[in-house]
TrEMBL record:
Gene3D superfamilies with a match to the protein in the record: ACP-like
PROSITE patterns recorded: CARRIER
Name of the protein this chain belongs to: Acyl carrier protein
InterPro entries the record matches: ACP-like_sf, PP-bd_ACP
Source organism per UniProt: Pseudomonas umsongensis
Stored Pfam families: PP-binding
Chain ranges of the Carrier domain: 2-79
Length: 86
C-alpha cells in the first residue's frame, strides 16, 4: 500500500518543472498563489501525475485542492477507494 508521504514526495517532484525556476516548493505552498501555476500548468501537472501513478484523477478534485499536501491526500483517498480500503 502506498503511503501519503510517498504520494506527497512524487507530487512535489512532479510539480517542480511546472513551478518558476528556483522556487522552493513546500507541502503547504499554494499552487496558484505561491507557485504561480496557472490552470494550464495545473492540468499538465495532473496529467503527468496520472501517468506516473497509473491512475485516473478526476478534474473536480482540483476544486478542493490548493497545495501539494492537499493533492497528495486527495490522491491517497482515491487510491483507497479504488482498492476498497475506505
Amino acid at each position: 500500500m502506498i503511503t501519503e508521504e510517498a504520494i506527497l514526495e512524487k507530487v512535489m517532484e512532479i510539480i517542480e518543472p511546472f513551478a518558476p525556476s528556483g522556487m522552493v516548493i513546500k507541502p503547504n505552498s499554494d499552487l496558484t498563489g505561491d507557485l504561480g501555476m496557472e490552470s494550464i500548468k495545473v492540468m499538465d501537472m495532473l496529467w503527468v501525475l496520472e501517468d506516473e501513478l497509473k491512475m485516473s484523477i478526476p478534474l473536480n478534485i482540483l476544486m478542493d485542492v490548493h497545495t501539494p499536501d492537499q493533492l497528495a491526500h486527495a490522491i491517497l483517498t482515491l487510491t483507497e477507494r479504488k482498492n476498497g480500503t475506505v
